[in-house]
Amino acid sequence: MPDSNSNLTTRGAIVIGVFAILCGVFPVLAGLGVIHVHAEPGTRPWVAVAAGSMFILAGLAIINNYALGHASTTDGTLPDGAPLIARVVQYVLGLGIVGLMFSVFAWVAFGSGERHFSSSISIPFWSRSSHSSERSGRIAFGIAAGCMGLFFVFAAVSGARRVWRSTRGGAEGK
Fold it and tell me: What are phi and psi of 70, to 5 degrees?
């Protein structure tokens, strides 16, 4: 049952989680070749599997956080009374999502093959789109991959500490 700090019910979390999972199934099946889709030349199937897997893991994380972890607190962490298994599962799912994001960003930035990028700016009553150079796109994705890599390391260390503290009966690690 959700705590008073949460606006999402267990039932709502399950519905949203299942919806996210369903959104991820199609790209995974397409990447695995189960469903035939027309992909751009040079697109690796694992990229579709990784993109879909992010949605699947996010859906599982939502379900775990609210349905099994007894809802999160206002800062997004599991409450002190959450079972250890819910904490470990949430940690692994979060690392999986960030790791997949890193791998996709790094492939776009550093992978072989030609890339095509575009940029757009939209504000109310005005919009502009243009093609960007391959170099500027790869640089942007390289910076994002670097940030994701650093975030992965930070999340791995802080999450492991948080799980460790919860096994020792200490505070959540705030």
Answer: 65, 40
- 3-state class (DSSP) for residue 141: helix
In the chain, domain spans: 10-113+130-167
pLDDT per residue of the chain (174 residues) written in tens, 0 to 9: 444 455 777 888 889 999 999 999 999 999 999 999 888 877 889 999 999 999 999 999 988 887 765 666 666 677 777 788 888 898 999 999 999 999 999 999 998 888 888 888 889 988 888 888 899 999 999 999 999 999 999 999 998 998 888 777 655 444
Phi and psi based region of residue 169 (left: phi greater than 0; alpha: psi -120 to 50; beta: remaining): left
Residue 97, token pair as written in the block: 């999502």
* Distance separating alpha carbons of residues 146 and 152, to the nearest angstrom: 10
Distance of CA 110 to the CA centre of its chain: 21
Q: Could you tell me if 78 and 70 are in contact, meaning their C-beta atoms sit under 8 angstroms apart?
A: yes
| Cβ–Cβ under 8 Å, residues 87 and 162 | yes
DSSP H/E element including 13: helix 10-31
